[in-house]
Batch of 3 targets.
Target 1
Amino acid sequence: MTTDTNFLGMPVSGDITHGSTRREQKPLEELAPLFQALIDDPTIVEFGWRQYTPYFNDGDTCEFGVNGLWARTTAEVDTDEEEFSSMYDLDVDYHPSLGKVSGHYEGEWPDRKFVRDGYEGPDEDRYNRCQELDGALQSGAFDNVLLDHFGDHALITVRKGSIEVEFHDHD
């Protein structure tokens, strides 16, 4: 069987099994404004995320991904450190000082969508900026950029003037 596919000018025939369902990759320039919005925000002291390829995925293909944007604001800096001992306590979806959005799901998989009911918190624009960056990081569209700059199995922490990368043991 001959296909319309060619490699180095030679026609390719046979059954082609496409491996990854990754999205088309976007350049760093499209991610930069979303980063800058959080860096420029005087209330956000630091933010970060975890990125890694799982070691085991219940038999499914293990693919690189980004997990959970977190943020520390001036409100958490002024609070007892033990209260927010983990980045999981500062997840931007249900954040103690950024707020949260309530909502519900409509539809069936794979077309199921989250319908936003309302925002609860002090600054909806700030919350939305965090959500935009979180969505971009977890979309898969910047995986190549993130892998190239920070590597695999990494915990990234972004501060006003620096970015720190630590090994992330995700087992």
Note: The longest helix spans residues 124-138.
Target 2
Amino acid sequence: MSNHPENPVPFPYKYDQTQLESEAVSTGDLPEASIIEKMMQKTYDMYADLTSGEVARYIPRLADADPRWFGLTLASTTGSAFSSGDSRQEFSIQSISKAFVYALVCDTRGHDEVRERIGVNNTGLPFNSVIAIELNAGHTMNPMVNAGALATTSLVPGASWDDKWDFIHRGLSSFAGRDLLLDDEVYTSEMETNLRNLSIGRLLQSYGHITVDPECVTELYTRQCSLRVSTEDLAIMGATLANGGVHPVTGAQVVSAAASRDALSVMATTGMYEASGDWLFEIGMPGKSGVAGGIVTIAPGKGSLATFSPPLDSAGNSVRGIHATRHLSRKLGLNLFSSTARL
């Protein structure tokens, strides 16, 4: 699923340029509810029959996913939500958890320490690259690839591993506004096949970049990736980051505005792995994908779009999710870089 560094992943999703005539802009508010509802359903209908991509198989349990599943949810910073398709179908959050755990760690450790310890630059290499560590003298480059995510998880506060898990579980559940459950089957399947992550953890330990038991860190990271969410959950989690860390429905301050800003910054530049540059150029929003087929994207101040569809492209990103997100970013004015002149 990952590419050799000499053969970067293309962004092979062509967009009908004639549709740009009705493109919305990022300034101002979201369109009115009736327009959003219509556009969400239209976008679902446009891409529901796509057959490109392959369901992830390197984690055996994920291979059982129905490739026809396709769900969309847009949640606003005012608490409104709009969904189409399989928006209540639950799936494991996987790598999307990296963004929210990073925000939680930034909230407790602070901007400077986390930047120094984890890094913020794109590796240009696959998400599970070992070479990226060796090329940077054992230092992780960003929290959205596995090495940086393991290092981030190692910084979670707690006197015991149970305390650390409680912090992660409570934190991610607070983002969602409900108690997220662990998918025991996915967790077991990942624990049986995560030797590469364990090796990355041990390599980081050998460089002194993590100072705790790498086996425990890997197990903790695997657990956070195995929590079950739907697009309705992910959209409200993203909308919390879009709202300065305040949950749009519960009103709880989940993380600080500064931690939200830091998480969105690294999502924008590294959240889609080696396709992150193309993603930002074409879609113009901070985003994070997961190997189960989820994608969450955030329009700061406006809200968040979450998609779910298991078939992935060669970079590990959902094919239907990319198409739908790009279309909606243009039609609903979510692209941060789309504006008009002030007259």
Note: The domain at 17-331 is CATH 3.40.710.10 (Beta-lactamase).
Target 3
Amino acid sequence: MGTEQKVAVITGASQGIGAALVKAYRDRNYRVVATARSIKPSNDDDVLSVAGDIADSKTAERVIGEAMARFGRIDTLVNNAGIFIAKPFTEYTEADFASALSVNLAGFFHITQLAVAEMEKQRSGHIVQVTTSLVDHAMSGVPSVLASLTKGGLNAATKSLAIEYAKRGIRVNAVAPGVIKTPMHPAETHAALDALHPVGHMGEIKDIVDAILYLEGAAFVTGEILHVDGGQSAGH
């Protein structure tokens, strides 16, 4: 198969939104490079799994290097990997701070820099960050300074990159979710989490996947922070 078939790189791809994105891009006939700390090899010849810690620059080098060696191009990068630590501000530890910066910021920086370098060669590409609606609409019941510090940085970087590369064929966008129903939220928390959203319920993984796929096909959209949050960022 030639190198004309598009290729998507997805971080945090072992479960939840990331695993759903792998399937969604394959359904669109993309070849996929999936990376996560504990990802398993795929039986699909058009899915390349690369295990590693996204916070480590060596992982980024392996992901992009193996993607180019196997598939010869990179068309999309979805920076989905991230961590969320909800604690009162004064209770954050040095380890919490280091973890948030290393995964949410360093993880984004290293792999995006390498992906953009490849996209520049073909003068086309698309990058999407998964951030959080809390950046724009903080809530007293959800202490989230480290999320706002790091994911807010990604929102700002999204706009900066979009403008820097607008004339070079590379689009850069972000999706800012509300609370999404995943196994990390036990059933007994659902009622309280539903109530955080003006529409009255949490989002589904499909809502985030659909938003990213919309941005994938939206050729005239760049620098956009797309809120998929049941109205959270608009107000209460």
Note: The domain at 7-228 is CATH 3.40.50.720 (Rossmann fold).
